[in-house]
Design brief:
This protein is α/β, with parallel strands linked by helices and about 675 residues long. The protein is built from 27 helices and 14 strands. A seven-stranded mixed β-sheet has the order 7-6-8-9-10-13-14, with helices on both faces. A five-stranded parallel β-sheet has the order 2-1-3-4-5. The chain has a two-stranded antiparallel ribbon with strand order 11-12. It is flat, with a radius of gyration of 38 Å. The N and C termini lie far apart (about 140 Å).
């Protein structure tokens, strides 16, 4: 009996020593937090039923190291009941994780899922699988799992939603924002989307300015009214509200998001705005438009006013108090009237003619009013510091054409044909410089007297080297009807009016230069807006940039507004007024002594609007860039084109030329045969 007791005692001691040894060997895998360790007993001496009881006791005491050991031994037993196996695997997974054995936890979670696929429906399984992969830094595997879980329509929405939220927290990147956008889109109903909105805005309130700023970098005009980007803008605006000069802009941003964004929980977000209104009041914004409403340019001025009125009415309906005052630049005292505006009129738009802008420069009104010129260049003022631009520049026009020709068409060699006057010379120099910057070559350049039409044919012939080509053909023994070789450039820039261009371009076809792109300024597309009975057949490779396209999404929205308010049909100038009021209302008011840096910071926030014109963006230093559309003439007007359209048209032109050359060669061969036969018959 004593011998049996001694044997049993020795067995217990050996088991304790073994457990202690195992625990010592795994200390490198245990988290630094000290775990409660209870006394352990030999599992070999316990029946399966008693082992279940012992393991459960350790579990209930949260003695995770001990429970990990016991549940490990338990699932190795052959006689463990199936229902006990699932519980054991669940608790073993959690025990392993809480003991710092993250790889072991991942393996046990996989066993649990393999035994019961229903584990994916368990919030516990999902939590510890996420935590285990995160702890072992298996980010690729984790991202794939979360994406698959989020998209699995067989899982409960709570599981899918949590997966999407976790996916968005893996890093602060564009992909994480896209994951939230996707999660919001696939949410089953508005209540679920509302929960996502509340969760995300609550999380944003705890973010640092640096994190919020990084998230803001993922916002564009295409997504600024979508979840989650709209709430990032909302949070930024809410934080800016405490600054008096920022409040009008912040209020406009927040109100616009609630009015026009995807937000479902409108009462909740309106409550945030209402609380801020109670502190700072409903803001008032004043915008002055300096335009000609009499005289030669009055038609343009009145169109801008129509668009501005439509925008003001839209803002008023949204609850924003925007004052718009128009001052006629044809009045002798217009500068004095600008200077006497009430103090809340701190933003000025216009003028649209150079003479009026020079008067504004001389009066130095731009030092008090934040001025946005409706000109290609803000006079002699420094753009981004003394004045700003709300209009396309020559660089914008040429950039659009060069992007197509170089980037899309692969053209590297260009020619320039310009009129001998100021506009033509200036545009030619800009084209030359921008083409060179992109690695292109200018292989031909000629000028022509703009009013001496009879000389144009010779100038074009010289540009395409027609005389030299004919001489080369003659030297090779070819007749006058022999096709001329193609030009050594793929596109020609012609900075003149559309009327002049229509008369110039046929000369290229006369000299067989019929596979060129003809690039022009925005003047062409403006003229084509009202053109009729255009000879478009030979102008299919004519390309002109422009800011207004009546079939664009933005133009369509403007048409709806104009129709609803009975304001007539919009065009470029109407759209200019509409877009400017929408944009400038978001700038808020500026305190006396404002700085260019403050203006540029406001612009960076305000530029995310839905433009009805081609969208304008500004660099950090206040330089404007307009992403212009590209057009070609049609019989009655113009149509928008892209790279694929131009490639197809150019390919057709080259095929047509190739057929003409082939037909000439075939004719020559037949003539040679006939002459040979004739000569032989005489012999």
């Amino acid at each position: 009996m004593n011998q049996e007791k001694s044997s049993r005692l020795f067995s217990n001691i050996f088991a304790i020593v073994l457990v202690a040894t195992l625990l010592g060997a795994t200390t490198s895998c245990i988290s630094l937090q000290k775990q409660p360790v209870g006394s352990t007993i030999s599992t070999q001496m316990l029946s399966t039923k008693d082992l279940v009881k012992t393991a459960d006791q350790a579990w209930l005491k949260r003695d995770y190291i001990a429970s990990e050991l016991y549940y490990t031994r338990l699932i190795e037993r052959a006689d463990i009941p199936k229902d006990a196996t699932l519980v054991a695997l669940e608790r073993l997974s959690i025990s392993s994780y809480n003991s710092g054995h993250y790889h072991e936890a991942e393996a046990r979670l996989a066993e649990w899922k393999n035994l019961s696929p229903e584990a994916l429906n368990s919030e516990i399984w999902q939590k510890y699988y996420f935590d285990s992969l995160l702890a072992t830094k298996k980010f690729t595997q984790l991202s794939a799992h979360l994406t698959q879980t989020m998209e699995d329509t067989n899982l409960p929405w709570d599981i899918r939603s949590e997966a999407g939220k976790n996916l968005s927290t893996l890093d602060q990147s564009e992909e994480s924002m896209a994951a939230l956008e996707r999660l919001y889109t696939i949410a089953p109903n508005d209540d679920d989307r509302k929960d996502l909105e509340r969760w995300f805005i609550a999380g944003l309130s705890d973010k640092s300015e640096q994190v919020l700023e990084k998230n803001s970098s993922f916002i564009s005009a295409k997504n600024n009214l979508k979840f989650p980007y709209e709430l990032i803008l909302f949070e930024k605006a809410a934080r800016q509200s405490s600054a008096k000069e920022y409040w009008p802009m912040a209020w406009r941003t927040m109100s616009g998001i609630v009015q026009r964004g995807q937000i479902i929980d409108k009462p909740g977000f309106n409550k945030i705005i209402a609380d801020l209104e109670a502190q700072y009041g409903i803001p008032r914004v004043g915008i002055a438009l300096v335009l000609p409403i009499s005289g030669r340019f009055q038609d343009y001025g009145w169109k801008i006013i129509r668009g501005a009125g439509a925008a003001q009415w839209e803002l008023t309906k949204a609850g924003l108090d925007v004052d718009v005052q128009v001052i006629n630049t044809e009045d002798a005292d217009w500068i004095e009237r600008v200077q006497n505006l009430p103090p809340w009129y701190t933003v000025l738009g216009g003028p649209i003619n150079v003479k009026a802008f020079k008067e504004l420069e001389l009066a130095e009104t731009y030092t008090e009013k934040v001025t946005f010129s409706f000109l290609a260049k803000p006079g002699n003022l420094e753009e981004g510091r003394q004045a700003w631009r709300f209009f396309s520049s020559p660089e914008d026009q040429i950039r659009a054409s060069l992007d197509l020709a170089i980037n899309d068409m692969g053209i590297k060699d260009f020619a320039i044909l310009y009129p001998q006057e100021k506009f033509g010379r200036q545009m030619s120099q800009i084209f030359w410089d921008m083409a060179k910057e992109r690695g292109a070559k200018i292989t031909g350049m000629e000028s022509y007297p703009p009013n001496d039409f009879p000389k144009w044919g010779k100038v074009v012939g010289k540009l395409v080297r027609a005389p030299q080509k004919k001489a080369e053909n003659k030297a090779d023994g070819l007749g006058e009807d022999a096709p001329l070789p193609e030009t050594d450039f793929g596109a020609v820039f012609i900075p003149d009016t559309w009327h002049q261009a229509q008369l110039l371009i046929p000369h290229f076809f006369f000299h067989e230069a019929d596979t060129l792109l003809f690039l022009g300024p925005e003047l062409w597309s403006q003229a084509l807006n009202s053109a009729r009975d255009v000879e478009a057949q030979n102008l299919k490779l004519t390309i002109a940039p422009g800011a207004w396209w009546s079939a664009s999404d933005g133009a369509g929205r403007l048409k709806e507004v104009m129709n609803r308010e009975g304001l007539g049909k919009p065009d470029f100038w109407v759209a200019l007024g509409y877009d400017f009021i929408k944009f400038s209302s978001k700038l808020g008011t500026f305190s006396p002594g404002w700085t260019p840096e403050q203006v540029n910071a406001r612009i960076a926030e305000a530029q995310h609007i839905d433009f009805s014109l081609a969208p304008i963006s500004w660099t950090a230093d206040g330089k404007a860039h307009q992403q212009l559309f590209l057009f070609r003439p049609e019989t009655n007007g113009k149509t928008k084109i892209d790279a694929s359209t131009v490639k197809k048209t150019l390919a057709n032109a080259k095929t047509k030329r190739s057929r003409r050359v082939s037909a000439w060669k075939k004719t020559q061969e037949e003539l040679e045969k006939a002459n040979t036969a004739k000569a032989e018959s005489k012999q």
